[in-house]
Amino acid sequence: MTTTVTPPETPIVKEQKRSRLPKSARAGGTLHGGPLAYAILAVFMIVSLFPLVWTAIAASRDNQRLAETPPPFWFGSNLFKNLEIAWNDANLGEAFLNTTIVAGTSAVTIVVLSTIAGFAFAKLRFKGRNALMLVVIGTMMIPPQLSIIPLYMMVAKLDWTDQLQAVIFPSLVSAFGVFFMRQYLLQALPDEVIEAARVDGASSWRVVWHVVFPAARPAMAVLGMLMFVQAWNDFLWPFLVLTQTGNPTVQVAVAGLGRGYTPDQSLIMAGALLGTLPLLLVFAIFGKQIVGGIMQGAVKG
Amino acid sequence: MATRSDIAASPVKGGAAPGRTPGSHSTDKEGRRRARLSRRWQRDARWSPYAFVAPFFLLFAAFGLFPLIYTGWASLHQVELTAPTDMNWVGLKNYTRIFDDDFFWNAAQNTLTIGIISTVPQLMIAMGIAHILNYKLRASTFWRVAMLAPYATSIAAATLVFVLLFGRDYGMINWALGAVGIDPIGWQDDKWPGQIAVSTIIIWRWTGYNALIYLAAMQAIPQDLYESAALDGASRWRQFLHVTLPSLRPTILFTVVVSTIGASQVFGEPLLFDPNKGASGGAEHQFQTLGLYLYEQGWINQHLGRASAIAWTMFAILIVIGLINQLISRRLRASS
């Protein structure tokens, strides 16, 4: 009966004892959700997904139809036409390429640097380790927006306006990444393995390459996806240094659609849809891993 | 998923078994082994940790710390957007100018109210959803992924959609309100509706994410606590109040701090919510936040020096928040 619902890690002895307890004792992950739980979740899910579905509906209509009541609840016939116009008007082809370059470079660099630093913080002993780790945690609390003015001056001085490196360079580090990898490596990498490699005479760099990277691979993948999403959706900084007509990222291009002088709402929605689809696809495929990553990074925040 | 809880509680945490890592005192056998290692090996073991953490700190110093400090320096100068490298010393004038500006205080107030309207319901809903997700559910991964979809949506895309949904004349929300007899609301024109609308976008994007964070913490609560509470006759609601909530206190504090920092930086949503007004955050600045005010001063009015003063004022506010956080978490630790 109730024994079938125990999570695998719970010892069996304990479970037998528990089945004699009143029903209310089995909270915290061992109690089946009732119809009410599903109903609430369904409502929450509809609220979460409705704006996205409606984006597609609005993108499949035309501007006139969006200026009538009641608003449309089902798809019209203009979807592909609107997508094509938005794609061309907002320069989305170039924007996709740019954003892929920026987000890809940022994610890969952050993952590699964070893994190495996270390994040092998790497994190596050195003077000042705890103090430096505190600095890392402290920097997580400083929002990057507060640094934009000198960065903007730098970009102006280097004449980097409208160039991708202006967006790439400030996005190459993440304190969260270091923290995340440290937490993962603390429990995923046994000291014995490092020790064994050491005894074989491996240098620290060889240990990183042959021991740490293979052990950290799942967490690296998750961190990479989280950082890719973050860089893909970053708005303020790209908006300041890249222009719509110059070398936009997707967010700059999509925001530009909304700020036109004669906004065509169905086209704006088509652009918003195009800008969102790639990430929704990533989430549909790797959703389980991303969810796991967020939850893992959360514990002991 | 089921292993999450032991990861959190894992005894391995805290890292190295003492004596195994180079540089600490250990047994004779290990000592002899270490003696065999070459000098180069020792140098490697001693300095490589610094080499491993150096890239992070160097990049952070260049693109995080230095700009942050330099912002303080720039805030004491007159700097114009048109010539960002020409700086004229003006002392504290930028600060007195912004503190004399009604729009600064307006923006500060808006940031505070939008912060409250967006953070409080968000975290409360997230807590409720996390509690439900903590039951045994069919298709649990599906629910978790589905509610992350807003998190995958960018601020720009989300805001543009909500602008349409909140449209005064043809928006779906006013239409739905009209169906129950409420007159159309000028979401973009009036102060409170505007702030509620902007907050709605933030709530929509972040609630699922925070629910996952609470869920992770709930799964780390030992089952025994619930059992003994139940033996004492506590109902499920009382268990939630007296077991779940107290165990989540550090996590709640963490999400409050992160959300507060996020709320202090709100920029894209109010900028795009009224595309015609842009940086002023509505015709009467009714939903202009500090982030938007900084942008307006720096990039529309072209006073980078004054914008720097705003940035440092925001920084000071964050430090105060951080200190309050420290104080509270110390109290929490002392009481538990």
From TrEMBL, chain A:
Entry's transmembrane regions: 36-57, 101-122, 134-155, 167-186, 207-232, 267-286
CDD domains: TM_PBP2
Annotated region (Disordered), positions in chain: 1-26
InterPro entries: MetI-like (IPR000515), MetI-like_sf (IPR035906)
Record's subcellular location: Cell membrane
Domain ABC transmembrane type-1, chain residue ranges per copy: 96-286
Membrane topology: Multi-pass membrane protein
Major site of localization recorded for this protein: membrane
Keywords: Cell membrane, Membrane, Transmembrane, Transmembrane helix, Transport
Pfam short name (any one): BPD_transp_1
Family to which this protein belongs: Belongs to the binding-protein-dependent transport system permease family.
PANTHER family: ABC TRANSPORTER PERMEASE PROTEIN MG189-RELATED (PTHR43744:SF12), ABC TRANSPORTER PERMEASE PROTEIN MG189-RELATED-RELATED (PTHR43744)
Protein name: Carbohydrate ABC transporter permease
Source organism (scientific name): Streptomyces erythrogriseus
